[in-house]
C-alpha cells in the first residue's frame, strides 16, 4: 500500500483572526504548496472600535497557548486594526507577548508581514486601498510612516465590518486605478485587509500599472512560508509571490 501523508505534513500555520475565517482559508489554499494547511481560530471581534480591540487583545495569550498546544509550526495574528490602533511599534510588544506562551513556535503579525513585503519589493512609497474608516486609516498611516515608509494616498472603499468578503473585486480594482491615476508617485499598491477579495485583483492591477500589488493574505502566508523554509509556491500569483516561486 502506498504510504499516505497526513495533511499538513509540511507545515501547519496557526491563524488568530479577529473575525470569521472566510477569505483567509480560500486565499491560503490558492497559494499553499502541497503539504501545507492552516489551523485557525477567531476572537469574535464585533467591529473597529476600542472596546472591541481590548476584548480581542485580552484573548491573545490564551489563543496562542491553544494553537501551540495543537503543535502548529507558525502562529500568525492577522488583525492589523487592533495593532495599529495601539500606536507605532506595538506589534513588537504583541510579538513579545506571543513569544512568552508559544513554546518556541515562531510568530508573526499581519502588519509586520506587510512591512516585510514592502522591504522585499524595495517599495518605500505606498498607495493603499482599504475598507477602513478615516480614523483607522490615520492610525495605519502613523504606524507605517514610523517604520520609514510613506504614502502617496490612502483610499477607502465603502465597507461594513461584518461583510468585508462581499466587497466586489471590481470596486477594489477601480478604486486602486483611480487612486493611482491621481497619485502616480508610488512604488507598490497595498490592499491591507485579509478579509476582502484582494487576491482577485492583484494580477489585473499589476498588468495595468506595471507595479507590484501586495494583497495582505499573500504577504502573511509568504512570511510564514519563508520563516519555515517552505518552498514550492506556483508562479502566477503576482510580483511578490513570483519572487519566491518554484
Defining key terms:
single chain; 246 residues; alpha/beta; four-stranded parallel beta sheet; 8 strands; 44% helix
Q: Cα distance, first to last residue?
A: 30 Å
Classification by helices and strands: alpha/beta
Main sheet summary: 4 strands, parallel
User: Average pLDDT, to the nearest integer?
Assistant: 94
Helix content: 40-55%
- The coarse silhouette is globular
What Rg is obtained from the alpha carbons, in whole angstroms? 17 Å
Low-confidence stretches: none
- Put simply, the count of helices is 11
Q: Strand arrangement, largest sheet?
A: 2-1-3-4
Q: Summarize the helix and strand pattern as letters.
A: EHEHHEHHEHEHEHEHEHH
Number of strands: 8
Strand content: 15-25%
Amino acid at each position: 500500500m502506498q504510504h499516505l501523508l497526513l495533511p499538513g505534513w509540511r507545515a501547519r500555520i496557526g491563524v488568530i483572526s479577529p473575525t470569521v475565517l472566510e477569505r483567509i482559508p480560500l486565499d491560503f489554499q490558492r497559494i499553499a504548496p502541497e503539504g501545507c494547511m492552516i489551523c485557525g481560530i477567531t476572537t469574535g471581534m464585533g467591529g473597529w472600535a476600542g472596546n472591541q480591540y481590548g476584548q480581542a487583545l485580552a484573548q491573545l495569550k490564551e489563543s496562542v497557548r491553544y494553537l501551540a498546544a495543537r503543535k502548529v509550526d507558525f502562529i500568525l495574528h492577522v488583525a492589523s486594526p487592533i495593532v495599529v490602533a495601539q500606536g507605532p511599534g506595538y506589534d513588537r510588544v504583541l510579538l513579545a507577548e506571543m513569544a512568552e506562551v508559544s513554546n518556541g513556535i515562531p510568530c508573526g503579525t499581519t502588519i509586520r508581514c506587510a512591512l516585510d513585503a514592502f522591504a522585499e519589493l524595495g517599495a518605500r512609497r505606498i498607495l493603499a486601498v482599504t475598507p477602513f474608516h478615516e480614523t483607522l486609516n490615520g492610525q495605519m498611516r502613523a504606524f507605517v510612516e514610523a517604520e520609514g515608509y510613506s504614502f502617496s494616498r490612502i483610499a477607502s472603499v465603502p465597507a461594513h465590518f461584518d461583510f468585508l468578503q462581499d466587497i466586489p473585486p471590481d470596486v477594489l480594482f477601480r478604486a486602486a486605478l483611480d487612486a493611482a491615476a491621481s497619485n502616480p508617485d508610488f512604488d507598490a499598491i497595498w490592499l491591507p485587509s485579509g478579509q476582502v477579495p484582494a487576491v482577485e485583483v492583484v494580477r489585473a492591477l499589476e498588468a495595468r500599472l506595471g507595479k507590484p500589488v501586495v494583497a495582505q493574505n499573500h504577504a502573511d502566508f509568504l512570511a510564514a512560508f519563508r520563516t519555515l523554509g517552505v518552498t514550492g509556491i506556483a508562479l502566477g500569483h503576482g510580483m511578490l509571490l513570483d519572487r519566491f516561486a518554484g
